[in-house]
Write the structure tokens for this entry.
Amino acid sequence: MIETTRLIIRPLKTDDETDIQSIFDHPRFYYLDAEYAANNAAKFLRKYIELHNEDASRGTVLLALAAVLKSTNTVIGCFSLGNDHLLSRLSEYGAEVTGFLHPHFWGKKFPQEVLDTCLTAYAQKFGVKNFYGTADPTNKSSIAVMRRFGFQKAESITNPLEIKLYGSPREVYVTHL
Ligand SMILES: CC(C)(COP(=O)(O)OP(=O)(O)OC[C@H]1O[C@@H](n2cnc3c(N)ncnc32)[C@H](O)[C@@H]1OP(=O)(O)O)[C@@H](O)C(=O)NCCC(=O)NCCS
């Protein structure tokens, strides 16, 4: 568990279903992995709780984390850190960082709070210094968050089969701690 100014960051739990479903049900919300789970929070949680693994000797490390707002004790977003690579060749860039927030909490600099603490903690715990994130080029806020944190563009995915995996064009951004 990690505590930031406004958040508790801890592994996702089955009990988070109601909070996550209210994020998925928001009319402005879109996230590829939510769509892959048919915007069903229980299905999304089953997948990520199963993938969560902090022990490298037991397999691929992946942290599936909930961002809990301290003031209300509700889950306002999810972040994952690790190697659930949709496109396996991207592992050459390091560990993947991805996530989402409830639209009500957009524009309040929560991603910076999460990245500042979680990337450093992950790097220290697992000895990984390279991270990458992917974004649709039209996803301005995701790209702004990554750029502000120091991520730089590494490539635009151009292979049609790879684009199909993401359902839209994709850019890859990388950073090194
Ligand atoms: C990506 C996401 C987590 C960002 O959260 P957020 O709360 O909006 O992030 P912040 O408030 O820290 O920053 C948003 C930045 O985007 C910028 N931004 C927002 N809309 C923009 C637009 N249309 N054009 C340019 N910049 C834009 C803001 O100005 C801000 O940049 P700044 O801090 O440099 O001024 C959130 O939008 C989200 O959950 N989206 C849905 C899921 C998703 O797309 N996840 C990323 C998967 S790749």
Remarks:
- Residues 2-176 form a domain with the Aminopeptidase fold (CATH 3.40.630.30).
